[in-house]
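Sharing in case it's useful to others searching the archive later.

Someone asked me privately for the predicted structure of Glycosyltransferase RgtA/B/C/D-like domain-containing protein, so I'm posting the question and my answer publicly. Question first, with the sequence:
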Amino acid sequence: MRRPPAGRVLAALSVLPALAVAGWLLAALPLLAFGVYRPVVAIPLGLAMAGLLCWAGTRGLVSVAEDADGHGPVDTVRATVGQVAAAVAVAAGAGVFNGVMHGEQLAVRRDPSTYAQYAIWLAREGSLPIPARPEAFGGADPSLIFESVGFYAVGDSVVPQFMPGAPMLFALGEWLGGLFLAPVVLGALAVLAVAGLAARLAGGRWAPVAALAFACCMPIIYTSRATFSEIPSMLLLLGGLALVHDALYGHGRRIGAALGGLTLGLAVLVRVDGLRDVLPVLAFAGLLVAMGRRSPGRHGGLGPPLLAGLAAGAGLGLAAGYGLSRPYLTYLSSSMRPLLLICAAVLVLTLAGTVAAPLLARLRPPGWLPAAGATLVALTMAGLAVRPWLVTVRRVPDNVDDRLTATFIEQIQKANGLPIDGTRLYFEHTLHWVAWYVGVPALVLATLAAAVLTHRLLRGRGLPWLLPLAVIGWATLTTLLRPAITPDHPWAARRLVPVVIPGVILLAVWGAERLRERAGEGRWRGWVVPVCALLLVVPPAVTSIGTAFTPVGRGEAAAVAAMCARIPPDASVLIAERVTADRYTQVVRGACGVPAAEVRQVEGDTAPESDVRRLVERVRAAGRTPVVLAAEEGQVAPYGPVTQLIGLVTRQDERSLTEAPDGTWSLRINVWMALP
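And my answer, the predicted structure tokens:
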């Protein structure tokens, strides 16, 4: 049997992960909706659906396509065996390295631990919402609080924050005994996705360079070691772009366009921000439909399946958000409403453009438009670069959440030795954030490449870049203008992960390829690839050194397991202190499997002793064993014999506001228990 060309192997390897993730999500979502997301059902159905999508997405994958300018047949992915092997080796190396250094964030402090607890609940119970079980405390009481950080109280239930896509994936890791290795595997597969897209858009020689530059970026390392949603979202977005590229410029099959749209749309199921990221795909699908009306052919016929797939994926994501994460969407309503209005406007404009396609086809763009477009790209990036010297982005707190954020920023400013001003958001520095992590050479190359590609596209050339550049440009601009995140690093760097960092790297390697072509056949041409490779890989690697070799949260998994083993199985846990309640209410409820509630504080961070004693008696009357938890021995000593459940010293993320992080901070966690 003839061995397939190396480029075809890379083409398949770079889309199979996204297809498998999409298939798993399609099988998992209805199971979760009906409350039967159990391994005995989910694993066979998920594997079957993933296998079906992988087969359909790669069936008949061929390598004949048009080149970037529409001339002649060439390979869709052109790569040698060595180039493919190098890209695979980078992905495998990234997986092994991050697997060894993976984090263990279980105490709910920020999003990774919220996702981890969400996944643990799904893996063990397979249904939503989470029962608060007030009857285990003698019934509802004004002093009982069942919500905690990342988990909303709704009636007698608790609803996790965030969309369910990523937790459904991480739950599979929990079933297989590796909750914290699931993001590591997804991160390694994302490296392959970047390599495959780089090979499609810039050539096979740049696949391992793009893979290595991407794998070395600190935000990629950071989000590949913990249960974040950004890596699975990026995997779907990049895989979807590759599928659409192959459908348009490779085998030209409608099923490929439909699967590409579906995969892109399912990014909404993982991150609600995915709705913003895929907006250009909607306009692009409308363009293909318009092309089909004007001159039916291979490309025009792919518009309807792309649009149908996108609508199906995004529709499932929105439906899941509304049905399973409604309190979260309500919390985001101030930003969701404008986004939905923008989506509606894009849809109306797309429909209008499709209807008016025959008329618009007669128009001839002015000759100055390509140069103007390229200039606008350069000026936009220049404006973002000088933005810190022109504006200072602030937010005056007008609600409880904003005031808490302002207080948090003030604490970080004090630790960083900066002037105290809790209204500052530091969003004017967002382009500088990108430069920290990918390096100035990559950013300059990407900017020049974006300008040149814009010029070429407005002249009707370089069409394979139309959709990728639209997605990268739109998501990058909107993210850098308003990242909507607490601005400490490495935390804020996660906003750059789904599109900005891979987009900059893809543009940079395309720019490097153009430099190689411009070098001609002279002696300097041979130096372009190694020099550009060094310029693209060394700066992000240097930035990452300070944090890459220090795991975060190590020891938390063992500490939580030991805590759960010492809590009586018939206990009802009363948490009498605020920080412990924020961090451990859902840990006790989900990981330990016993009811838990915070006791409301009247003044300070500790609950009144009279309320705790009253609730202890209510628990006894309900036929259960009362347990009281707090952070310090003295806070639980009044209620009975005390035991220290957790006394852990570990590492946590640094919190840097004005420069790239170069280390980690110490973290001490104490939990004490009293058995009244």
